[in-house]
Design goal:
heterodimer; A: mainly alpha; 5 helices; B: mainly alpha; 8 helices
Chain lengths: 140, 164
């Protein structure tokens, strides 16, 4: 798309790692500060979208293919559901995290971190998938 | 308010998208001022960021300018009546910040007092969303996943067939 704007390319090369780092911070710090997996997923997706806007759809698709995105979106939702099933198998109710570890509070921590991971994975890959689909459809 | 009026009245769709994005950014600032940092976060990232780009990409598929049609008055009447009803409804709401409002008396005290012991993490929003209301969040994730899958199946997958 934009191939000749040097400033945009250089600045976004600086920005994309920072955005990704911030997304990971929001993801794993969500239990302490504001934010959580939904926000983290969108921020992570916006890093890829910025890359797509500046470097073109094809070069971003070489980094993450549509197949991978679909797999990641499904894996995130399955991870969330799987944590619930794991609780069932360990003798609790569906999505009851107390049984995931010996200490109930530790079990809650394990459960919340796992489901947040699932949420972040699904949200990020679904957003990128949406944008890819539309960008692919649009006439060049 | 001004941005919303501009969105309704303008015929230049590109300008409408830009103003819409500014509207989202203002709303995000408003949420942050009202101490709802999580919501402000989401509004800034989704409303001002991702959905703007999504609408821009959709705009590339169609014309930039809206064709001026005949003025229609029925939608305006419907919107005004609905808005007036909602404003009338807010008159019965209790004032913001009173400690004995219904919203502060139901389950909120239990979350605020016990979640530190039961869940053990300081952010009550996270413990409510992820643990107490885990089912709802599971539903949201499945909705996001299904929406993405639906869009991909509708306009992404068909493209593969026309390619040789």
């Amino acid at each position: 798309m934009i191939r000749d704007v040097v400033i945009l390319r250089v600045v976004s090369k600086f920005l994309i790692p920072v955005i990704m780092l911030f997304a990971l911070y929001v993801q794993f710090h969500g239990e302490l500060g504001p934010g959580g997996a939904f926000q983290a997923g969108v921020i992570m997706a916006s890093a890829f979208i910025l890359h797509m806007l500046v470097f073109g759809l094809e070069s971003t698709r070489r980094i993450v293919s549509v197949t991978w995105l679909r797999a990641c979106a499904a894996a995130g939702a399955l991870l969330y559901g799987g944590v619930g099933i794991a609780g069932l198998l360990l003798g609790g109710n569906y999505l009851e995290y107390n049984v995931l570890a010996t200490d109930p509070a530790a079990g809650q921590h394990v459960g919340i971190i796992l489901i947040e991971l699932g949420v972040g994975l699904t949200v990020a890959s679904t957003m990128v998938l949406l944008i890819f689909t539309f960008a692919d459809r649009a006439p060049r | 308010m001004i941005t919303a009026l501009y969105v309704a009245l303008s015929h230049d769709l590109l300008a409408v998208i830009m103003v819409f994005s500014a509207n989202s950014l203002l709303a995000a600032g408003m949420f942050t001022v009202m101490d709802a940092v999580d919501v402000g976060f989401t509004e800034a990232a989704v409303g001002a960021g991702v959905s703007t780009i999504l609408m821009l990409l959709a705009l590339r598929c169609c014309a930039r300018h809206e064709r001026p049609g005949p003025r229609q008055w029925l939608p305006l009447v419907v919107v005004v009546v609905t808005g007036a009803t909602l404003v009338y409804g807010t008159m019965d709401l209790p004032p913001i910040g009173e400690p004995d409002n219904p919203v502060h008396l139901h389950v909120a005290p239990r979350y605020l007092e016990d979640s530190g012991r039961e869940i053990g993490i300081p952010n009550v929003v996270t413990s409510v969303l992820a643990s107490y209301r885990g089912f709802d969040t599971l539903g949201e994730v499945v909705v996001v996943f299904t929406a993405g899958l639906g869009v991909w199946l509708l306009i992404g997958a068909r493209r593969r067939d026309d390619e040789p």
